[in-house]
Amino acid sequence: MDLNGAKTVLIIAFLLLNIFLGYQLWQQDGASQFAYFKREGEQPRLESALEEAGFKMNISLPRGAMRLSHLYVEPVNLPRQELLDYFFPHSKELVFQKKEQAVHYLQGNKRLTIDPSKAISFQLNVERVETEITKEKAMELASEFLALISDTVQLKEDYQVKLEEGWHLHYSQEFNGFPIFSSYLHIVAAGEKIISTELYLLNPLNFSGQEREIIPVSTALIRFLEEYAKDARGREIIQINLGFYSPHYEAERWEIPPVWRILLNSGEVFYINAFTGHLEGR
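Request: output the structure for the sequence above.
Response:
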C-alpha cells in the first residue's frame, strides 16, 4: 500500500472512532454516574444487592431500552359540589374552614380538605375497625366513587394492597399507554366503608420535543436500595412500572419526567427519575 493510501485508511479509522465515541457519550446523556450498570453482569450484582438488603422480589423486570421525553400537564378542576354531596349527604351540618390557603369541610368525624394545588383528601376519623372487609366489597365502594368522577377523567385499576388498616386501592390515569402516577385516586376501605381518600387529577397536554434514553430498571432498583434506610426484613418488591410522576404543584402548567415506580408489599412507593436516577418522591 502506498503512503497516500495508508493515510486515507488512518483518517477513515479515526473518523469512525470519533463517531462511535460520540454516540456512546450521547447515549449516556442524563445517566451520568449510573451508566455503568448497563455493563454485562448487572443482574447478578442486583440480585446480590437485594439479598444483602433483605428484600424479596419474585417479579419479572420490565424492559427499559427506550427513549422518552417529559410530559406537559395542567391541573384539573374537580367537581367540588358533587364531592361534597357524596361525602356529606346531610350538608346542613357542614362546617367550612380556611387555613393556610387550604379549604376544609367538616362534619362530625369527617373531614374533606382541598389544598392550593387542587388535591383533595378525605378522612373519616374512626377507632380501629374490627369488621373485616373483602377485596370485592372494597372495590365495589371504589367503583361508586369512580362513577362520580367519570365525566371528568377515566382512571384504571393500578394496584390493591391489604394492610392492617384495610384495603388500599389505587387507580391512575393513562396517556399514550403510560400511567400518570401523579393523576390518581387512592382509597382505603375498612369496615364496609371508605375511611380515607386522596384524589389528584391532571390533564396531559403533550410530550416535549427532546427525547432521552432512560436508565435501565436495574439501575433504578440500585438507586432505590441506596435510598431505603429502613430494616427491609419482610419487605418484598411486588411491582415495578414505568410511567410519569411529579409532586403536586400550585401552577397552571408544568412538565413531569418519566419515572420507575417501585411498590412494596408494605404499601410504600418510591419514584426514581428515569433520566437521572434521582429519587423524585415516595
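The first strand starts at residue 56 and ends at 57.
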